[in-house]
Write a structure and sequence with these properties.
14 helices, 44% helix, globular
Length: 425
């Protein structure tokens, strides 16, 4: 898909500046800087007939709430100086509000009611506008943070129309409902004739959980199902999102009731993360688990897709020098993490979604964004420069020994995060 509008001037100017800066600071990555920065706006954003904007992931022609928000994030600081860019952001925010209002449990949507290859999934509803109905806490967080980032960048209150305000209330209500999934939720999901990561056990309701104050998630950011359904990085992101939502309700919308709801929810989720989501590791000390069920079971690993444990400072839950984060980071960047791989071409975190020996470019970029060690950053930059398989684009994953063996040649989120990292250095 090609953009059906002119790329905003501020975006073009920034892309040129980023390329020139990268030529001076890390010339091996300079050819990737401009094209990765422009990849989302040039190839994945489309103006809809009603004036909204629709953002595909790249090689999948659907809008993921999570991916689309992340893809646009590098452009957000430019909105104040470019009204054309602000119009795009408002159009995507309206589209998010429309989709969340349609179904808060779906993670990906069509531009038009064209149906889905997943329409045979067994769940409690399915619209022709839904691409996939895997409930992921981080998807709803992404919609909140997209709105917050735009408002912080512009101070534009016009974006808070009835649908956008309703979206924020729906998200808070959904998180509250899913604090007690078994008692209060009707959501279930089954997909026939697939591997266990693509469907949910226990009649589609997931494995049993106890109450923790955290909010339940069916699936991870990778779209793989959770083993234990309190996904710690997603709950961290939810705590951050609800804190920001409380501010929006208070300062931009004037809804004291929902401001208080979100503030209470943020505290309950954060308390649940700290009480139920940490364990004492015999090597690394106190660390965060990736998942827990609130019944004493924990999954110790990290997945490359964000929100991840590696991304804790990036999502704003804790600082880079937080002791538990530092312990957790040491664990997940070691072979104690079953999804950390060392190879001839690179070392980094992969995902069950892509299988053994595949490292994700997103994880290498996130390692730079969360590091306080210049030598570590430099090593990751060198790995990025050596693993794009002469495409100068970032991919979903690549083989740790052979970067020419990669998945997803058109994965706009990875390109966007890479460009955001270059701009931050």
């Amino acid at each position: 898909m090609q953009a059906v509008f002119s790329v905003p001037d501020a975006v073009l100017r920034f892309a040129e500046a980023l390329e020139q800066k990268t030529k001076r600071t890390f010339p091996a990555l300079a050819p990737a800087a401009k094209q990765c920065y422009l990849n989302t706006i040039e190839t994945t954003v489309k103006r809809c007939d009603n004036g909204d904007y629709f953002v595909i992931t790249g090689d999948i022609p659907a809008l993921w709430l999570r991916d689309s928000a992340a893809q646009l994030r590098p452009y957000m600081p430019l909105c104040r100086e470019d009204e054309a860019l602000s119009e795009i952001m408002r159009g995507v925010i309206r589209r998010h509000a429309y989709y969340v209002g349609l179904d808060a449990y779906a993670n990906a949507f069509n531009e038009n009611p064209t149906g889905s290859p997943h329409s045979e999934d067994e769940t409690d509803r399915y619209s022709d506008l839904i691409w996939e109905r895997k409930y992921e806490v981080d998807s709803l967080c992404a919609s909140v943070l997209l709105l917050t980032d735009y408002f912080d960048a512009t101070g534009d209150r016009s974006v808070f129309d009835g649908a956008v305000c309703a979206m924020l209330r729906t998200i808070a209500d959904t998180f509250i409902r899913e604090q007690r999934h078994a008692e209060n939720s009707s959501y279930f999901f089954r997909r026939r004739n697939v591997g266990e990561t693509d469907t949910m056990p226990n009649g589609g309701m997931g494995n049993p959980v106890g109450y923790t104050g955290m909010t339940w998630s069916g699936f991870r950011p990778s779209d793989d199902r959770c083993v234990y359904n309190y996904l710690i990085p997603a709950n961290m992101m939810a705590a951050v999102a609800m804190k920001k939502a409380a501010v929006l309700f208070s300062e931009a919308i004037g809804d004291a009731q929902y401001a208080e709801k979100c503030a209470v929810l943020e505290k309950e989720i954060r308390d649940g993360v700290e009480r139920f989501g940490t364990v004492d590791h015999p090597v690394f000390g106190r660390i965060y688990a990736y998942e827990t069920d609130g019944l004493g079971n924990h999954l110790l690993m990290d997945d490359a897709n964000s929100p991840s444990l590696l991304a804790i400072p990036y999502i704003g839950y804790a600082e880079k020098d937080d002791p538990v984060y530092r312990n957790t980071r040491a664990f997940i960047l070691s072979e104690h993490n079953p999804w950390y791989f060392k190879g001839k071409a690179a070392s980094g975190i992969g995902s069950p979604h892509t299988g053994p020996d595949k490292i994700w470019h997103i994880s290498l970029v996130m390692q730079i964004l969360t590091s306080t060690d210049e030598a570590e950053k430099q090593a990751c930059l060198e790995m990025l420069a050596g693993t794009h398989a002469d495409t100068y684009f970032m991919h979903e994953s690549f083989n740790k020994d052979d970067p020419s063996d990669y998945t997803r040649s058109w994965f706009a989120w990875a390109n966007a995060l890479f460009a955001q990292m270059l701009a931050s250095l």
